[in-house]
Design a protein that fits this description.
Helices cover about 30% and strands about 40% of the residues. It has four helices and nine strands, in the order E-H-E-E-H-E-E-H-E-H-E-E-E. The strands form two sheets. It has a five-stranded antiparallel β-sheet with strand order 2-6-5-4-7, sandwiched between helices. It has a single domain, classed as Cyclic Phosphodiesterase, Chain: A (Alpha-Beta Complex). The protein has about 180 residues and is an alpha+beta fold.
Length: about 180
């Protein structure tokens, strides 16, 4: 299965992200928009995982998470990764206990390398993708100023998940496969 490890959000946070996404979507001439249930923070993209690796991943993540304590994150204002002629990615940043988040991500990265999951070379940049390949009807900065500011409530990270990613009826669907608690 194609899979990744990530942090999920509660329903009210997903609703707030969706409401913000709606403002940008209304100003878009084109774009691909993330489904509400697919909002997440990626900790590690795994590519393909076979059943034997899944058991190893479960054991590794249960061990790592069992030694962690819950921590708090907050979502921040929208930002973009520019593309050639469009916005490659429209995303929300993350603030809060970033030291704990980066430590968790780094520990996962290092622990999975010996079982065949290549270490990511890019610096970890936690974010929530809300849209891709977007062409807006005005500049991103002007539209951003015209949209009411959203203040996301702090969220407690008490668990992480192994997600399966699959294409169903031309839609990308993320399904939780395993949950790992931070006690």
């Amino acid at each position: 299965m194609r899979a990744f490890i990530g942090i999920d959000f509660d329903e009210s946070t997903k609703d707030e992200i969706k409401a913000l996404q709606h403002h940008y979507r209304n100003r878009a001439l084109k774009g691909r928009w993330k489904h509400r249930d697919n909002f997440h923070i990626t900790l590690k993209f795994l590519r393909e995982v076979d059943p034997g690796q899944k058991k190893q991943i479960d054991a590794i993540l249960e061990d790592i998470c069992g030694k962690q304590e819950p921590f708090t994150l907050e979502l921040t204002e929208p930002q973009i990764f520019k593309g050639r002629d469009s916005i490659r990615v429209l995303w929300l940043g993350v603030s809060g206990d970033l030291t704990r988040l980066h430590s968790l991500q780094s520990e996962i990265e290092l622990a999975l390398e010996p079982i065949g999951f290549e270490k990511e070379n890019r610096k970890y940049n936690p974010h929530i993708t809300i849209g891709q390949d977007i062409l807006l009807d005005d500049s991103f900065e002007r539209i951003k100023k015209s949209i009411p500011a959203v203040h996301f409530k702090p969220m407690r990270v008490k668990d992480i998940y192994l997600f399966k990613s699959e294409q169903i009826d031309n839609k990308r669907i993320y399904t939780k496969v395993s949950r790992y608690d931070l006690p």
